[in-house]
Amino acid sequence: MKQRTIKWLGVALVLPVLVEGREMKTDRPDTTESAYSVEAGRWQVEAEVASGELDGGEWGEWVGMEMNWKYGVGEDVDVQVVVPFVTVVSGAGVGVGDVTVRVKRNVLGNDGGRVAVALMPYVALPTGGELGAGGVEGGLIVPVAVGGVWGWETGAMVEAGVVRGEVGGVRGEVLVSATAGRELTETSGFFVEAVGVFGGEDGLEVYGNAGVTWEVRRDWVWDAGVRVGLTAAAVDFSPFVGLSVRF
């Protein structure tokens, strides 16, 4: 946390200063995570209000109110807890999915500059029973953001993790993504994104994603979009709607 020193009656006092005015950056709606952390002492909640997966002509999974609770614990660090409160899996039932705990450490460009970089280790806990992975998963996410490229905000991400297979055992998986977005009006914008997942049980997954955002007021943003599978191993179609709030 930033500090400032003032003198009063000849005594130097060192006081903490909350960073004010940093623009809210979210880890949604695209797959590429934000490289910016939440301000120290502030909360940010990002919710996938509803999403579904259509694959092979059938709706296999629905998620409602998957909420990412984020809190700034330092000038460049926030902690996050992701809870999918309502998970519906065909043939498995309805319940709370696996809970994920993450820590984001911005290492460059949090409060200035065109480039920002962060490190975000995470661990997914097997709280979802049959609706979840069936064991502990984890890995490291490295997001990068580049602003002001011909009016576009761009970013990229590499995520390497250990995941559980549907038939047991664990394997390594790598996700790479690139995203670009820009404003449509003062309160709205859109993004397009390409995502690749390597190491999946059924082969390479490639997605083309797109969506829009709408800032209802400062620190209050709705979003909606679609994720479209471009390879045989990818989920065919996944629409979503979400909301992000900072306070």
Mind explaining what this structure looks like?
It is built from no helices and 15 strands. By secondary structure, it is mostly beta strands. It has one domain: Beta Barrel (Porin), CATH 2.40.160. The strands form two sheets. The chain has a twelve-stranded antiparallel β-barrel. A hairpin with a 6-residue loop joins strand 7 and strand 8. The radius of gyration is 19 Å and the shape is globular.
Write the layout of secondary structure elements.
Blueprint: E1 2-8, E2 11-17, E3 43-55, E4 58-74, E5 77-89, E6 93-95, E7 99-108, E8 115-125, E9 137-149, E10 152-164, E11 170-183, E12 188-198, E13 205-217, E14 220-229, E15 237-246
Antiparallel strand pairs: 1-2, 3-4, 3-15, 4-5, 5-6, 5-7, 7-8, 8-9, 9-10, 10-11, 11-12, 12-13, 13-14, 14-15
